Amino acid sequence: MKSPPLPSLRSLPAVAALTAALVSACGGRVPAMGPDRASGQSGLMGGTFAGKNKCDPKSHDRPFVIEWDATDMSQFEAVSANDIVFVKYEGCDLKVIDSCRNDSIRGQLGSYRAVDWTSGSVERIDIRDEGELYAKLPLGASTLAPRVSGGETFAMEYFVAGTRTATRPSQHRGDIAKMRGCAGVTHFVYAYNLGAFALGSTKRREGEVQVSAGAIGGGASSKFASSAEKKGGKLDACRGDSATEVAGCKTPIRLTLRPIEDGASDDTLAGSAAESPEAKNLAGKIQRERTASDQADQLLESANEKALHKDGAGCMSDLDAHDKLAGASAKLSTTPGAKAAYARVRCLMLTGKCDAGRELSRKNLEKMGSPAKSIDMMVESEVVSSCTNESAMKPRELLIRAVKQLRDGSYATEKGDPKACRAAYDTIQKLKGSVDLRGGDPDLLMLPTTLAERAHECFARAGDCAGAARVYREQSRRKVDEAAARAAVASRHPECK
Are residues 335 and 191 in the same domain? Predict the structure, then answer.
């Protein structure tokens, strides 16, 4: 028995109309078609399940990051160099939460392994409608969707040169909840591909297809559009023998995301569980102690770095955290002679706790067996260089600091601050008659020479020529008038002529 012939294409509208009439007669409703969009695509997609869930992160856990600019890329690379990257991924928007890490303990929640390089090849994806856009390039929907609706199609070529994978397969809310700056985190980057990509568009215009330069191999028409499209890295660089060495083929182009799991990680639970007679948690204990020791070392390193940059509060915070992990009292920063105690001296000074810093410094040096006279000089030197609370400094210490500032300003190669020169000069004038200049400090021993030969230089190099002439006249060993003082300064500093 032969099947009845299928309706021809010309008869389909009539069939559709008849079907609608039958459904209506039976009490049903046919959804309104609505107007077609400019591209000629139907407007029905938005009402479908696929349309309503087109930006569901559960369906797009390996997005291309074509929308990142140089700033975004730099931020990602800076975080991923030492830590796991956490993100907020909602709808078609992905944001790196760079505050979700501990700057003092690199890799606290894991890090990324070395790149696993591959031979690679150029791959291509085509975007012909919104469905393909949301399925293949969801993070580009906000900027590309209007263009796709307007009739443009896109082609992207990409090359994956290698992959970096996280050292931990999962991340847990119980762990990240202990860290500040993790609010809003939904996923973490488990892995990311390195390479390059180029995105080009095609658009029908007056019966012909124009192809942008980004769509390599398009060639649908001899009349190509020359406008540049989105690019990341350089595809040509990925084809060379040195692809793994050149920056052009090391751009992060695609992420593998995993959602944050509830609870705490097994490692955290094992490390915090109570010990049993059977020593079931021995491995967790050893790992916990080893991790704590490593973290303590990193905290001490971080404290020293912050002290170097005059961040006293940050330094003290790191040292306090270090002491909680250090375990043995001999390693505490509060224990005289301990390695961390020398960092604590400077950090105490930087936070204005100069008396406490002076005391700990003396105890450190005594622990080393330093001679009493040397101890006095070294403690004095530490106070002069680091104390930020001048009310806690002795007159001698203030005088030494002022002489150093005036001398350093006189040798400055860049324009200094005339106010700093004036403050140092005034302090010297105020204290030089009441402080015993003896005691071995070279700056105090050279004070007369510094005032006579270097003081006016500090003002001149700071751009205060009038102040330089005035100080020159005040400190000159012979009597000179104002005109002679100005001439003397100008002869050494042409900018004061």
Answer: no
